[in-house]
């Protein structure tokens, strides 16, 4: 039997919260409701959901603070709901650890499409961890454990959001190959992220900062997108090859 996904809906507007709950239950998801930020944090800790749908503006704790607190101990995918449509606000949502952002007002079809896509990513990750010997990809001081979902730099762990990890893993596993932004959006986010074409750029910028010198290997390919550069041969290696 297929396990039923559990989704926490944290939204203080009760009518909207109930509307989302009904549609998710029609899709056979188990729904836990929270009506303020403090309850949202408790619900994630208690129920360990597969997805958190989180409103930005809520009493007690706003969505940004909830996101920060959840990220201290959980990699649960987070879909942030916001009435703020400015790009700077959407970037802020991603920077505090959310995986996706949906601007109000929104259609239920779009909400469900994003929920389905995010849960597909969760299922793919779970399937990958079944492998008894998950691969570890290493490039110099950078190491990515695809099974444990852990990135280390010079043996020190790097704290990445799930989407940052997925993006980095895709680039590193295909070092030297250039990927278009549209392709990265489809592969990492699982659907067409129309209207938010800076998403990849924002995540690449954060990765570069967090990876220090290794971040320079994420190269911009003008007119295309990004690639992770293959390690360059040292001068000594080149000299031996010429001799």
In quaternary terms, these chains amount to single chain
- Tell me the distance between the termini: 63 Å
Biggest sheet descriptor = 5 strands, parallel
Q: Helical region count? A: 9
Number of strands: 12
Low-confidence stretches: 233-243
Radius of gyration: 20 Å
User: What is the chain-wise order of helices and strands?
Assistant: EHEHEHEHEHEEEEHEHHEEH
Q: Mean of the pLDDT scores? A: 83
Q: Globular, elongated, flat, extended or rod-shaped: what is the shape? A: globular
Structural class: alpha/beta
Our estimate of the beta-strand percent is 15-25%
Helix content bin: 40-55%
> Strand sequence of the main sheet, in spatial order?
2-1-3-4-5
Explain the overall architecture.
The chain is an alpha/beta fold and 243 residues long. 43% of the residues lie in helices and 20% in strands. The protein has helices spanning 14-26, 37-47, 63-71, 87-95, 108-128, 162-173, 181-189, 199-210, 235-242, and strands at residues 6-10, 30-34, 51-55, 78-82, 100-103, 136-139, 142-145, 150-153, 156-158, 179-180, 218-221, 225-228. A 5-stranded parallel beta sheet has the order 2-1-3-4-5, with helices on both faces. The chain has a 4-stranded antiparallel beta sheet with strand order 6-7-8-9, covered by helices on one side. The chain has a 3-stranded antiparallel beta sheet with strand order 10-12-11. Helix 2 packs parallel to helix 3 (63-71) and helix 6 crosses helix 8. The longest helix is centred in the middle third of the chain and has 21 residues, at 108-128. The model is unreliable at 233-243 (pLDDT under 50).
